[in-house]
Design a protein that fits this description.
Layout lengths: L2 H10 L9 E7 L3 H16 L6 E6 L6 H5 L8 E6 L6 H11 L4 E4 L11 H9 L4 E9 L4 H17 L8 E8 H8 L8 H6 L5 E8 L11 H15 L2 H31 L6 H34 L5 E4 L4 E4 L5
Parallel strand pairs: 1-2, 1-4, 2-3, 5-7
Antiparallel strand pairs: 4-6, 5-6, 8-9
Bound molecules: uridine-5'-diphosphate (UDP) and magnesium ion.
């Protein structure tokens, strides 16, 4: 942990007599319609644990009145804290901010829109107390999501578990419990491209999988759209695997081999039977085919070079808005 981040952490984590049993990290962006219900349901779920807990809201640059709502939330038994990012940095950065500031003995990531039912929290904590350091919540049913989203999500998970160098459990999103040890490891991962499903799976540790039915959104609309999801998928693939580079090499090798075989066939036909070279369409097809393979390979290479460029800038992942001082607090991710 470096000095900058430690100072920032001291500002964030108020001294408490007892370390909270669990920190529930809730990132949100323009969720004014659901926050009150979310808070009530999380508090109700935590009351079943009969221990001091922490609820940590991360405002990811909301433009509605979400912030004024959460900053009024409190609870007689549990510690309620709110962080505000200086703009919309994306859910991944908001979750990272929450995990860095969390002070509980374990951390649960939860969506504010109540698609991940807080009522599962006691069951997750029970699994953790039984020895699991990571409790992954696997979606069985996905209510309120169209077949296109379900199918593309399913294909993406299958594809990712195939290309990723580290196993990513299928149909497990961000909703999960992690021991503070696991969270500390994730907080040390410095990359700017935060493909959370990969980062959360990277440390390993002992795992338990629990099943749950994902509810429909309580209100409001999803913040995701297909261009964003394609971007996320590309980020996930290029930040967690170098296999596409290998595929580009293999495609190059395969086309070279096919070209070599074709050259022998054409030469033989011309020399032995005196056949003229078959004409225009095949030549054009071959040129286009090779051009396509070359552009694809350059594109794949470009994706990785782009990642290097972003990583080399070493910008902070998020900036905290310090309301009291009216100036942003820079928080390094190297904690
Ligand atoms: N979210 C966020 N920042 C963003 C987008 C989303 O903090 O830039 C939050 C959002 O408020 C919600 C959670 O991330 O609490 C999941 O977002 P959403 O429901 O839009 O995604 P989906 O469940 O459709 O995948
Ligand atoms: Mg949602």
């Amino acid at each position: 942990m470096n000095t900058v981040s430690y100072k920032a952490y001291e500002q964030l984590a108020p001294a408490t007599k007892a370390q909270p049993l669990v920190t529930v990290v809730i990132p949100f962006f323009n969720e004014a319609e659901v926050l009150a219900t979310c808070h009530a349901r999380v508090c109700m779920a935590l009351s079943n644990l009969h221990q001091h807990c922490e609820i940590l809201y991360i405002d990811d640059g909301s433009q509605d009145n979400s912030w004024s709502l959460v900053s009024q939330f409190s609870h007689p038994l549990h510690q309620v804290r709110c962080l505000r990012l200086s703009r919309n940095f994306g859910k991944e950065a908001a979750m990272s901010a929450g995990m860095t500031a969390a002070s509980g003995r374990c951390v649960i990531l939860l969506d504010a829109d109540l698609q991940d039912p807080p009522e599962y929290i006691p069951e997750m904590v029970k699994a953790w107390e039984a020895g699991a350091q990571v409790v992954e919540m696997q979606r069985q049913e996905r209510h309120g999501e169209g077949w296109l989203k379900r199918t593309t999500a399913h294909c993406f998970y299958r594809f990712m578990s195939h290309v990723s160098d580290h196993p990513i459990t299928e149909n497990v999103g961000d909703f999960r419990l992690m021991d503070q040890k696991v969270v500390a490891v994730i907080n040390t991962l410095p990359e700017r491209t935060r493909f959370m499903k990969g980062l959360l799976a990277w440390p390993g540790f002992t795992r338990t999988i629990l099943s749950f039915d994902r509810d429909a959104r309580l209100a409001g609309t999803t913040k995701w759209n297909y261009p964003k999801l394609i971007h996320l998928a590309l980020e996930g693939i290029t930040s967690f695997s170098t296999k596409p580079l290998r595929w580009a090499t293999m495609a190059g090798l395969a086309t070279s081999f096919i070209t070599f075989v074709m050259a022998i066939v054409i030469f033989t036909k011309t020399l032995v039977w005196g056949d003229a070279v078959a004409g225009y369409p095949s030549t054009i097809l071959i040129i286009l085919f090779l051009g396509g393979i070359q552009l694809l390979s350059i594109g794949v290479l470009g994706e990785y070079v782009g990642r290097l460029f972003i990583e080399s800038k070493q910008r902070p992942l998020y900036v905290l808005m310090d309301d009291a001082m009216q100036k942003p607090t820079f928080q390094s991710m190297e904690t």
